[in-house]
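Bit of a strange request maybe. I'm writing a small parser for structure token strings and I need a real example to test against, not something I typed by hand. Could someone generate the tokens for this chain?
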Amino acid sequence: MSDSKSRHLSLLYDISELSSIVSESKDIDTFLHQVVNSVASHLNADVGSIYLLDDERNELVLKATKGLNPLSVDHIRMKIGEGLVGTTMARMAPLCDGVACDNPLFKHFEEAEEDAYKSFLSVPISRGIEKIGVLVVQHQQPNYFDAADIMALRAIATQLAGTVANARLMIGLRQFKQEKNPRSRLEELKFIKGEAASPGFAMATALRLRSESPLLVEEPEKNFHGSVKAYRRALQHTLEQLRQLQEQLVQRLPEGAALIFEAHHMILKDPRFDHQITDLIQQGQTAPAAVRQVARQFMSLFDTSPSSYIREKAHDIEDLAGRILFNLRKDKGQGASPMEGHILIASQLYPSEVLKLASERVAGIVLVSGGVTSHVAIIARSLKIPLIIARHSGLLDVPAGTPILMDADVGNIYVDPSAHVLRKFEGRERVARATQAQSAIMKSETKTLDGVRVHLMANINLLSELSLARELKAEGIGLYRSEFPFIVRSVFPSEEEQRLVYIRLFEQMSGLPIYVRTLDIGGDKILPYLNLPMEANPELGLRSIRFLLKNRDVFDQQLRAILRAAVGAKQVGILFPMISSLDEFEAAHRAVKEAMSALDKDGLEYNRSPIIGTMIEMPSVLTIIDELAAKADFFSIGTNDFIQYMLAVDRTNENVAEYYQPFQPVILRALANIVRRLGQFGKPISVCGETAHDPEFVAFLLGIGVRRLSLDPQYLPAIQQVIAAKSIAAVENFANELVAASSYQEVQMIRTRYKEKN
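Reply from user aminoacidic:
Good idea to test on real output. This should exercise your parser:
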């Protein structure tokens, strides 16, 4: 018998001994540590770890380790399908990798301190259909584990399944008993790994958005000033704060975002609101009690309205009352608003709410639902608010005032961070600033390593981003998302209001091509004032071009505003979103012609030679791509929606987020076919989705023939550097291999080889 096999049999014997005494052990944690120590020792591994499944959150939690940083125990969490450990559980099969850090599935946890370990071997622990956890060993030497090790670790996992299941049950009961202790809950949330949605750093205290209405919290009256005089003073402070917020929004959001606080002013101008509060105080109530009572009455009145738009205004009443109560406090500090300088934690946010938070000068946002491709994330990037998507419901329980450090460049959240973490953060922040300064040096032209020209254009959400696009030498606006002037208002903007916005767009990017996408609302872009009926599935409902064709007055006003604002512009493109058929495109194209005819009749100047294009987002266009190519002047692939609809995956739904994979063969083949077919017609094509700033996906896009990318301005320097390091021959080989792959697993292997060579 070989030493290796003898070693494995000895290990099985030792594990049996541990299993027999677990019921007598008073310390479950010690048992788990004995297991990982024994496994690591007998396999001569540098690391042994056990991850147990938390059923409540459907996450794998590191419960014991030998070799990794012990402080990472109970802090490292992964969803099933996330990272190598989560993938092991998802596949219910062993996973062995000779250089794990190069595997695209590998998920790096800084606090684990595992950078030195190359070889990785994991096996699932299960009992029947019950999923229990994952057993992992690691080694510094590459390609260390062999088939015998895999067989042995599988046997060990089988033998351990029953006892570890019991241990997991006891741990669950222990945690249940401790759940009422807020401090223990906070310790569990010490570190959370989320998704980086908008880059930046923030260190501030936590504040839960809409955790508990200020109208429901009955604080001691001694915390507030209570007289009529104090109320009048608080009211004036509130009016002044709202005025300042509006001025800040005018500067940052020329689209007209000052109107966000219009409802607040209307409420304050209503004499009933002010008089009722004053009367109650004069009758003997304290100022905060009077504010709460009157605000509740108004909210109740709004809530009974048949109009969803009016019902939505109840939130404005609540917000306004909260501001007055804040200004009545004796200890409100120096902040200009209840939210200033805090890190906001929210379960859900609408785009319009993010605009408000920008004016409030929040330090950062942690969102417990959604996806990095959502429009909330897009707006946060535009406004430079650090944002992390962290699908961990426990964050909603973090007490207000708890210090939080968020590193939104990588998605790390540290709750009540230690001095060590803070020192590390300060160093990284300095490095990040230096790196950012270097990355701002952009060349006027982008070329590959072998001199092939690639055009880099900018996606623009808000006019405030235009200055950065110019500084970074964007070669035009590949996508202007025109819905934001609609989102920031409480009513539809008129033709003239839209024209003034578009004029600034054309003036500031004069001489460069500009492509304006017509109104794209629906899905996660909600306009409360539309008062549309609720839809069971808004992503498949009345959205984008469908809405415009059904509401021609809205469509016609926007088209007229674009054409009038573009007088004198050299190259103007009008881009239709969510086109699913040739009929839709032709109907939208006719609307442009009809708008031009109407402007002629009105004797108004306008741009007479716009080019007309379509977004490629719907799977249905794959079968009519030739017909569309004959009709449209240009094309833009919106990969966010294209991937979502091709794979039938709601990209904001955390339950299926793991299926949203740009590198699925069906996506790669479809994109390659689209670019090839459109190339035969000589029609310009660009890619404007999130994949346009993914370095690896950019290599694929170059390989299939894409020569125009449109991305958020901040990503331009990094992508220019990526392109400059690639040769067309190399990326074509990479793309050809990917397109030939028939499974996602095969694609992952090709990606791993590509990374090793590059």
